[in-house]
Model the fold of this input.
Amino acid sequence: MSQLEQALPKTVVSKSVETIPNLFERVEAIAKDFATRAAIHDREGSFPFENFTALHEAGLLSLTIPREFGGQGLGIYSICRVIEGVARGDASTALVLTMHYLQHTHAARNSRWHPDVYQRLCRESIEGIALLNAARVEPELGTPARGGLPATTAERTTDGWRITGHKQYTTGSPILRYFVVWARTTEDEPRVGSFLVPRDLPGLRIVETWDHLGMRATGSHDLILENVLIPEEYALNIRPISDVAPLDPLFSTWGSLVISALYLGVATSARNWLIEYLNERTPSNLGGSLATLPRFQTAVGEIEALLFTNRRLIYGLAQDIEKGEYEGSVGLQAQTVKYLTTTNGIKAVEIALELTGNPGLLKRNPLERHYRDILCSRIHTPQNDVICQSLGKSVLLAK
Done:
């Protein structure tokens, strides 16, 4: 831990963390274990099932489930710290876990969920490895954040709903027990919304299409749904197209900050490897390690400044949110933090690559994997152009 990290406040935690002894110590230990396998899963594009067994055994899959349903109900500050810690070990595992946390956070606030369905989902997520994530992106439409309606359909029958469609980039698909599928109804006046689809139903299959530059172990494959019949009460939040509710601002805020924390974890792991390498690398003509050279000290100082800024932005806003001490649009503030911290994180890892040259790009070293993973930070909704446009409009069109 650097001196700048040590300067961060240690008292800003959710009150409910007190009920989980040594939470962050356990996260640190489990991340070290994940790190021993991360390169193998990355190279093979295989899914780290064993990591989620470990997360379940450590009681870390229920942190965003409300306490009244048996979970821990942790706040955004603590969840950011957990995800940052897990990402230091394996970014892909952290991303799947992030989506699971976010979906439970959203479900807890969604009054349109059938109470029995939601309580069963919580119980299963506590008793076993029952992860869930949204399935929204489609080949024809692309990301729904850019507008448009899904091609996936939900046909009402006497037995429930029949779901048919094709989804892409379904993060965690090899292990998910439930998919929150975005679809439109086939009614004369179509409605649009989400439908809870269990993975073990006839007509559901996963096509292993994920072969990405980064986040290779997330299992973000295609989801195919062919007349998958789900119960009536599994329609979660369907509305007329003209009355589609805007994205829950809390969900958007959590998403931006937790994703920011994930990539802070990636950049920190890159920094940690770099420091070890520079201290160990001692060229014969130098008489000392690379860490003794002013040029390297200056560059590492720049990395430290970038990561310190990221921590202050992420955890400062998380602290403000938990205290209710913020002004204006907290969702836009969180998006701004995402834009700044992911940009800083990419720059920090690029500096590390410039310093190390060929060794940094060797596959036997983790730095090139960290770089490929952190580039994926640009993909997550909202993307940089949307964030900057929203910021610009908030100033230019303010009255």
About this structure: The longest helix spans residues 249-280. The chain has twelve helices and eight strands.
